[in-house]
């Protein structure tokens, strides 16, 4: 096989893997802190993509859209937590699941009603069109940009969790909510913030994905299963775990796409199943 | 015979008189599917969001055999049960090793794996177009093509399933599953291997899903891709919860409400999943506990009105 093709596929795998990691980290924050199965996480991803598309078409500025769209998704997350999920913390996972799944259906159908059932494409901004010569292969600028952006976001998330007071409170919230609230921290505000932050990360992952894969109403639910895989392999609240898991399935998917394109999505789940067969507790153990 | 059984029998007789035969048949098929889930959800306390995996796998295998080989219908049904059980054993083996939220996410993720496999394996499954042309064979000289004959066939299998499920939940096995739901640690301490019993519940649930899947393929003459999709997994959870997962008969009521409503609404508006989503949200926020509990609450509220007004009827 031709090395330049192989290298560019591996790079593609890293790019998608970083996006998967972003999704997984967002989900991990929400699931870990709120202790709910969040089936609306994919919907947040889709809304991020569609918002970026809409803002670009309305204002003609990609950069502004990249800032505004995820903020919009975070606000949506805020509303969802405040108006819906908050009322279900005492209920079982089954009802929490139905609520978030119902919201996901509403968002998917809402997207079809507003933007239509047909997929759309979104070109990258003029500055990032074309490729860069990496020596062995010419690689699209936009994908390199996404790799860097996703890397910075992951780094930002890591710094936030490790170095800031609020990040420490969130980590403590994953460990022991009761203790955190006994220490005088408003646990409800923490929950709302965690949901909005997780939604933000899903939204920006969606926004960054739009120029690579285009948009379609089912992009959210397709991403939901992948985010679950990242969390199942990486562990709740485990940032390095999410990155390793995301890169692993991203690269596996890209490489399989070279030899057997039809299996490239199923392989994500097959890799998960294989890892869990050997390590039922996930890559780095679970709490 | 208990009053509940008489009510079920009466419902089986009356249903085809009041709704279209296809809908009546679908209600009982979906009820079999719900019975299987309820063993997990209601009795063992395991929330599986991947039941369509077993339903769909069995529907494809059964549909394929009927379509290409004209295999005997009872053999196909038995194979459907086996396919449901075996696929559930494979999926369950991975899932029962994790608990809580991980369990739910794994059932969903593995459901996606089966879905994408069916989606891409077009030579067998037909991909997005589904697998059409599943025949209904003749049985004892009666063609099951007749909608009422097929209704009777499915209803008998439903009654049989209900009887089997009653025996399971009343058996020591059923009690152990409830013990695991109530307190897994204590069940372990008493000497029961919780993971093994959870897996067993998963396999039994999968077997029921498999039976329902094959019946579904024969009912519509097609295995649509949705039969193995996560929306189907969600629908059966929803139906079971609106019926009330705490009771053996909850899934029956849930199936009736869900199928009847969805079949009525889906012909009116193509975007009806939107309404389904809205229904999920409303039920979850305002009608938790399901129909069975709402009914019980209504009666206790009526009884309470005579004794102590204003003490009952609040949401849990």
Written account of the structure:
The complex is a heterodimer of chains A (287) and B (316). Chain A has 287 residues and is mainly α. The longest helix of chain A is centred in the first third of the chain and has 32 residues, at 3-34. Chain A is globular and about 60 Å long. In chain A, 53% of the residues are buried. The N and C termini of chain A lie far apart (42 Å). In chain A, 74% of the residues lie in helices and 2% in strands. The mean pLDDT of chain A is 91. Chain A has helices at residues 3-34, 41-59, 62-83, 93-115, 141-163, 165-175, 177-182, 187-213, 219-234, 239-259, 266-278, and strands spanning 131-133, 138-140. Chain B is built from 14 helices and four strands. In chain B, helix 1 (3-18) runs antiparallel to helix 7 (147-170) and helix 11 (230-243) packs parallel to helix 14 (290-307). Chain B has a two-stranded antiparallel ribbon with strand order 1-4. Chain B is globular. Mean pLDDT of chain B is 89; it is low at 308-316. Chain B is 76% helix and 3% strand. In chain B, 47% of the residues are buried. Chain B has 316 residues and is mainly α. Chains A and B meet through helix 4, helix 9 and helix 11 of A and helix 5, helix 11 and helix 13 of B.
Outline the fold blueprint.
The complex is a heterodimer of chains A (287) and B (316).
Chain A: H1 3-34, H2 41-59, H3 62-83, H4 93-115, E1 131-133, E2 138-140, H5 141-163, H6 165-175, H7 177-182, H8 187-213, H9 219-234, H10 239-259, H11 266-278
Antiparallel strand pairs in A: 1-2
Helix pairs in contact in A: 1-5, 1-6, 1-8, 1-9, 1-10, 2-3, 2-4, 2-8, 2-9, 3-8, 5-6, 5-8, 9-10, 9-11, 10-11
Chain B: H1 3-18, H2 21-44, H3 51-69, H4 73-95, H5 100-120, H6 122-125, E1 131-132, E2 138-139, E3 142-143, H7 147-170, H8 172-182, H9 184-190, H10 194-220, E4 222-223, H11 230-243, H12 250-266, H13 272-286, H14 290-307
Antiparallel strand pairs in B: 1-4, 2-3
Helix pairs in contact in B: 1-7, 2-7, 2-10, 2-11, 2-12, 3-4, 3-5, 3-10, 4-5, 4-10, 8-9, 8-10, 11-12, 11-14
């Amino acid at each position: 096989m031709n090395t330049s093709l192989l290298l560019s596929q591996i790079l593609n795998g890293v790019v998608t893997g970083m996006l998967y990691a972003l999704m997984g980290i967002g989900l991990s924050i929400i699931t870990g802190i709120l202790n709910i199965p969040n089936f609306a996480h994919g919907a947040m991803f889709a809304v991020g993509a569609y918002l970026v598309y809409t803002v670009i078409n309305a204002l003609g500025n990609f950069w502004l859209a990249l800032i505004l769209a995820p903020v919009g998704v975070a606000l949506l997350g805020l509303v969802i937590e405040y108006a819906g999920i908050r009322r279900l913390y005492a209920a079982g996972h089954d009802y929490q699941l139905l609520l978030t799944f119902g919201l996901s259906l509403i968002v998917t159908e809402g997207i079809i009603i507003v933007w239509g059932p047909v997929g759309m494409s979104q070109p990258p901004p003029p500055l990032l069109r074309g490729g860069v010569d990496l020596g062995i292969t010419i690689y699209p600028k936009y994908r390199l940009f996404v790799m860097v952006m996703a890397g910075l976001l992951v780094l930002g998330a890591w710094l936030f969790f490790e170095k800031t007071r609020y990040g420490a409170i969130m980590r403590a919230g994953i460990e022991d909510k009761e203790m955190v609230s006994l220490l005088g921290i408003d646990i409800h505000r923490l929950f709302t913030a965690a949901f909005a932050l997780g939604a933000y990360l899903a939204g920006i992952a969606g926004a960054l994905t739009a120029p690579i894969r285009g948009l379609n109403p089912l992009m959210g639910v397709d991403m939901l299963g992948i985010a679950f895989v990242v969390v199942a392999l990486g562990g709740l609240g485990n940032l390095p775990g999410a990155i390793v898991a995301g890169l692993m399935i991203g690269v596996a998917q890209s490489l399989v796409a070279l030899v057997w394109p039809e299996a490239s999505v199923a392989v994500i789940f097959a890799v998960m199943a294989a890892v869990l067969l050997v390590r039922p507790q996930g890559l780095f153990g679970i709490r | 015979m208990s009053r509940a059984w008489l009510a079920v029998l009466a419902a089986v007789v009356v249903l085809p008189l009041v709704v279209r035969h296809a809908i009546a048949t679908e209600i009982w098929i979906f009820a079999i599917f719900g019975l299987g889930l309820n063993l997990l959800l209601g009795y063992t306390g395991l929330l599986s969001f991947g039941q369509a995996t077993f339903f769909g796998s069995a529907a494809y295998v059964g549909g394929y055999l009927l379509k290409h080989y004209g295999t005997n219908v009872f053999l196909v049904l038995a194979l459907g049960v086996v396919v449901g059980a075996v696929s559930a054993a494979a999926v369950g083996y991975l899932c029962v090793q994790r608990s809580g939220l991980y369990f739910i996410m794994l059932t969903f993720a593995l459901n996606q794996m089966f879905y994408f496999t069916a989606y891409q394996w077009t030579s067998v499954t037909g991909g997005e177009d589904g697998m059409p042309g599943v025949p209904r064979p003749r049985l004892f000289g009666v063609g099951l093509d007749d909608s009422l004959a097929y209704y009777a066939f499915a209803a008998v299998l439903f009654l049989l399933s209900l009887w089997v499920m009653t025996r399971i939940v009343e058996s020591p096995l059923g009690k152990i599953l409830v013990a695991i739901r109530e307190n897994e640690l204590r069940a372990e301490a008493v000497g029961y291997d919780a993971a093994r019993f959870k897996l067993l519940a998963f396999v039994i649930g999968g077997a029921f899903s498999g039976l329902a899947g094959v019946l579904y393929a024969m009912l519509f003459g097609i295995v649509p891709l949705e039969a193995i999709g996560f929306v189907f997994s969600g629908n059966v959870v929803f139906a079971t919860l609106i019926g009330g997962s705490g009771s053996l008969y909850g899934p029956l009521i849930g199936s009736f409400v869900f199928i009847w409503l969805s079949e009525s609404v889906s012909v009116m508006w193509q975007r009806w999943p939107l309404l389904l989503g809205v229904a999920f949200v409303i039920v979850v926020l305002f009608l938790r506990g399901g129909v069975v509990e709402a009914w019980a609450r209504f009666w206790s509220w009526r009884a309470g009105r005579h004794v102590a007004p204003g003490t009952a009827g609040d949401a849990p």
